[in-house]
Amino acid sequence: MLVGYMRVSSESDRQTTDFQRDALLAAGVDERHLFEDRASGARDDRPGLTKALEFVRAGDCLVVWKLDRLGRSLSHLLNIVTGLKEKGVAFRSLTEQMDTTTPHGELLFHLFGALAQYERALIQERVKAGISAAQRRGRQSGRPRALDSEKMESVLAALESGTSKASVCRTFGIPRSTLIDSLARVGWTGPK
C-alpha cells in the first residue's frame, strides 16, 4: 500500500498542500491514505507525521513529494527512513526520485547516511576548534562557576574561622554539593 505524507510550513490559507496532494495521487496514493501537517519541519510534534508513521505496516511504502517535506535535517530524515526500513516499510520521494525498493534508491539512501555522518563529524570538529580557540584566549567553556574567586575567598575564610559547611551554604545561598565541588577544586582539606 502507498501511504502519502505532505506538509506546508504555515497554517495560513496562502500555503496549501494541493500541489503535493495532486502529485501523490498521480503516483498512486489513495486519497484515504494521505496524512498532512501544517507546521514547520523543525517541529518535533507533527501529528500528521506521527499518524502516518503509526499507520504504515511492513510491505507499505511511505511517499512524499519532496524530501524536505518529511525531515527537518539530513540526520532527522535518515532517522525516519531508518525507522521505516526497520519496520519493513519502503520510502519514496517523488522529486528526488528516491525509492528504497530499487538499487538506485538504496544507493542514494546510503549516500545520504554517509553525508549525515560527515556532517556530524564536521560539527564536532568545529565545536572542538571553537573551544580550543576560546581557551587560548583565556575564556572558559561550560557553565560559569557558581562561586567566583572573590566569593570563594570569603567561603574559605569563613570555613577557616570554624563556621560549619551548613552555615556557609545558608549564608552564601549555595547548595551543599556546589560547596563540596568548589572546595575539592581548590584542594581545601579543612581548617588549619
UniProtKB/TrEMBL annotation:
PROSITE patterns: RECOMBINASES_2, RECOMBINASES_3. Residues 1-138 form the Resolvase/invertase-type recombinase catalytic domain. The active site is at 9 (o-(5'-phospho-dna)-serine intermediate). Coiled coil: none annotated. CDD domains: HTH_Hin_like, SR_ResInv. InterPro entries: Homeodomain-like_sf, Recombinase_CS, Resolv_N, Resolvase-like_N_sf, Resolvase_HTH_dom, SSR_resolvase. One of its GO terms (molecular function) is DNA binding. Signal peptide: none annotated. One of its GO terms (biological process) is DNA integration. Keywords: DNA integration, DNA invertase, DNA recombination, DNA-binding. SUPFAM superfamilies: Homeodomain-like, Resolvase-like. Pfam families: HTH_7, Resolvase. Belongs to the site-specific recombinase resolvase family. PANTHER family: DNA-INVERTASE FROM LAMBDOID PROPHAGE, SERINE RECOMBINASE PINE-RELATED. This is Resolvase.
